[in-house]
Amino acid sequence: MSNRKSTFLTARALDLEDPEDDVSDCDLISVTSRRSRLSVNSSTMGDMSAEKVPVAGTNSIRTTLFLIIFLGAATSAAFVGFGVTKAQDEQQVAFVSSATDATNKINLAFEDYVNAASTIHLRCRHRNFTRQDFRETFEYIIASGLQFKAAQFDPMITHDERPAAEAEARAYYAEHYPHVDYQGFRGFNYPNSTSLEPRIDQPFYFPIHYQEPILGNEAAIDLDYHSSESRTRAVGALFETKGPSLTDRLSLVKKKGEVSRCGNHNGPSYGVVLMHPGVALDEPQAGDEIWPKDFSSIVLCVPDLLKRSTSDQAMSALVYIHDRSQPGKDAVFLGGASVQHTDGSSEPDINFLDEEPLEALSAGLMEQNNVTAANRVWTVTVLAIEGTYKPDILFVCLGGAVIFCASLALAFWMWTSARRAEKFNKVLTSAQRSNAIVSSLFPKNVAKQMLDYDANDRDGKNADLKSKPIADLFPNTTVMFADMEGFTAWSSQRDPISVFHLLETVYNAFDEIAARRKVFKVETVGDCYVACCGLPEPNKNHALVMARFAQDCARRVRVVTRKLEVELGPETSALGFRFGLHSGPVTGGVLRGQRARFQLFGDTVNTAARIESTGKKGRIQISSATANLIREAGKGAWVVPREDKVLAKGIGIVETCWLTLKAIDEGDADADITEREDDELGGEFRDKQVGLVDWHTESLAQFLKVVVAHQRSAQQKKDSDSGLKAAEQEVLDRRAAPIEEISDRIPFPEIENLEAIQEAAESIELGMSVMMQLRNFVWSMAATYKQVPFHNFDHASHVVMNVMKLLGSASNHKDDGLDDPLARFTLVLAAIVHDADHPGVPNGQLNKEQDSIAMVYNGQSAAEQNSLDITWNLLMEDQYKDLRRTIYKNKEEMIRFRQLLVHTVLVTDIVNKELQTKRKERWNRVFGTSGEAPQPPSMFETLEDIQSERRTALLELVIQASDVSHTMQHWHIYRQWNTCLFHEMDKAWSEGRADKDPRKDWYKGEIGFFKFYILPLADRVKHSSAFGALGAELYHCAESNMMEWEMKGEQVTQELIEATAKKSEATARRRNSMDASKKFSTAQFEDKPEQALQAAAEVFTDEIDL
């Protein structure tokens, strides 16, 4: 068959399953037909009342078998149990002893590092040492075999001492390490900062002023430990407890192709900074102690610690270390090692392990112990390696096996007899069910021949094709083709679930009508529905029945699509079917072989397909043959000849008619109720704007329910109403522009199971108050949109559809950042409001005109910031209080919601070069570029920092791609919005609000836009791996649209220019006509009737032309 329209169509039949398999109830149309290995003739199948072969004592036999096997298993288990238990107890004791020893060695190894840090401080605490003395101390420590990343001494230097300290260091590095670009004291000057900068003035600093080795650690020279939040906490604990302290975990990842930065292993590793305050400077006097202001530190690599502690380990095991110092938070993985002993080797093989959560660790033998490491609590987990601790149970297992096998031998012969009888009954049941289904699918004579047909192979591979084929001629039939117009473009904007929901709903409605009208459904191919009347049962009124059926379907589809528009979005109700009917003979039969199917052949089928393809949406076109049959039946009023003749592919010029069933016979008991439904619903269908508001409200409500479900599952705290109101007012009182709130990363919560949260959300009711406020808010935002051709509420709705499509296809893995319910809700909200109050001219023009909006926002992303402020100020009104309290429950979530909204709205400004550059750099940093891996994190970035930055980049990518999604969809959708944008820019030019005439460079400008923005953006969607196959689809569409624009763009541009010129001319003529009508009045020509008639005629002629 060529595509979906050909000279034959298929209706799939049922599998006759293997006798040993259950035959499941399945869809009667979509099941494939294959021959059973059984040869069942029609006479046998005609009488299916034969009784099943009785199985004497079947239940009794099965009970006996169970008892025999159970007694044999119980006896063997008792025999094995004693020996296994004893062997396991012995191995358990040995393992616990070894695990405890491993924990103690880790504790001792850590103390070695503490002693080393104390040694450094002891040498340096009076500051009467030189850098050469510090290096000698470092060499003394490493000579003992202690391995670490770096040794440091960190004096407290006041602001007044800073110039001298920097000058001394600069001179030293210039003399001894000329490759070092010394920049003085550095640090992180602001919260959430990720880049090192010269340290701003502070009362005091704790710089890494002395460090060895220098090579490989240049980035840490004179880094102020008091500028990083996590390090500041460690410094505070250091002087508060007067004992060693540890920082949070650091990521130490080697660069590709280089030697590992931590130890000699090849994988990623983590480390911590061990800080030591030394001891009191003087003896206690009167109960006081004088402590030094400085401290020493060692950058400790956890793999080095593991290697030192397990190098002489006597057992083979897996050793993990996790930090459990923070109550209420998950344990943080620090490191893991596999220690294995091989024959002939005195030292174990040590391999470092990948990161594993503490909760995920499990094994048959596992021991956990806590170790106090400075101010931290480490959990050491030791797991037995599979095969290391196996109790010797061979003898007892053999004995148990002998006993059990004896019981099986006793039961085997009983089982075979019962199986034979059961198998026969199953075959008979399968044959009965198959006969019923085949009879319902095909004409009786075809079903009989199919059952008589004896296939040599169930798949038909060895079918005997020499026997008579299964086929028949149906001389009087009417075939209908119905194809959905606009479906391809519509489906390109929806996710697969929405597409199939539409098709299932429409086709199920057609099936109900077909059953009532006694019409045979042949097949559905994509968005094409095919049916036939006069088959399988002859019907002399087949043309009338099919005409009524087509009309019923046309009416029903209007009702169904309108109902679905609130659920599936705009333009759903605009979908319609083309119907084509033709009457004549068809040949139906079964093509035997692999996966045999019932098929229709003949010119009637092909002609019906051509009649449909040349029709119009919402109308039923019929051939002259069908029209004649309808006239002969006395229903000539139903038929209206088509004025123009139709050129049908492969047929030539044909005369067709339109079917107009304005009235159905009152005596027709099968008259479809959809006509009454359409009339009843007609008053309920509102204008497009109201429909869009309803759809947006419902979409936001579904995402908001998931937010509420997450709040409940996470047991989020609820702030007092007064506290939340004060926090909201604080945001409103800010004088800074929203653009200043943009940061490199947004905090995201850890979502354990988004699918479970979404399932729980289905049972949540938001309440009438929240739903009313949500709808009023959407309506108010819709009212802020101006009537401009492109940046209007329709386009915002198009962006919403594509945000939802991306979210529907996105992976819910926590690293992808699209599993946060609040972020998903905010994405949809941002898509709705991102162009609110857009003036229809770019930001650059607003800046040039010194528009009030541009002045307020200092010429930076003025339209976007204005939309954001309008949205936020409206949401903060008292009338939306319940809605706000549903979106967030506390100040932290309110601030995060604000951050999400700022990022997702302002990211739609693609002209702001500064913001675009920052976003590109961040994307390359966390995702890499084509062919290049992401940049490795710095030693001061935590894993949470990296994940938050990654999630922020993905969040912005969704709204960026959706804002220009028309370029990544069907060519028809791209043309539609490209035309709107052209008209908007041309309007701005004609009003003197643009620097360039879009008519001159529209063709080349679009090509450049594709090459330098759309394709790179689509490539990021494709290679982010977060959107699965959809990413590749979007890139393919963008690439196809660019190539088609390169071929057709010049012609399209010329058509746009001509259409614009005609529109301008018509507008001018309309304006002149209105002026003329104003001049014309009866009073003016009271005494001159001929002039009055002439003036009136001129006005009338102008209106006719328009």
From TrEMBL:
Keyword check for Nucleotide-binding: yes
One of the GO biological process terms: receptor guanylyl cyclase signaling pathway
SUPFAM superfamilies reported in the protein's UniProt record: HD-domain/PDEase-like, Nucleotide cyclase
Molecular-function GO terms, alphabetical: 3',5'-cyclic-nucleotide phosphodiesterase activity; adenylate cyclase activity; guanylate cyclase activity; nucleotide binding; peptide receptor activity
Keywords: Lyase, Membrane, Nucleotide-binding, Receptor, Transmembrane, Transmembrane helix
InterPro entries for this protein: A/G_cyclase, CHASE_dom, CHASE_sf, Cyclic_nucleotide_synthase, HD/PDEase_dom, Nucleotide_cyclase, PDEase_catalytic_dom, PDEase_catalytic_dom_sf
Cell compartments where the protein resides: Membrane
PDEase domain residues: 712-977
Domain CHASE: 202-277
Domain Guanylate cyclase: 478-612
Main location class: membrane
Transmembrane segments: 64-84, 393-415
UniProt cross-references to CDD domains, sorted A to Z: CHD
GO cellular component terms, A-Z: plasma membrane
Record keyword Metal-binding present: no
The protein, known as: Receptor-type guanylate cyclase gcy
Upper lineage: Eukaryota, Sar, Stramenopiles, Ochrophyta, Bacillariophyta
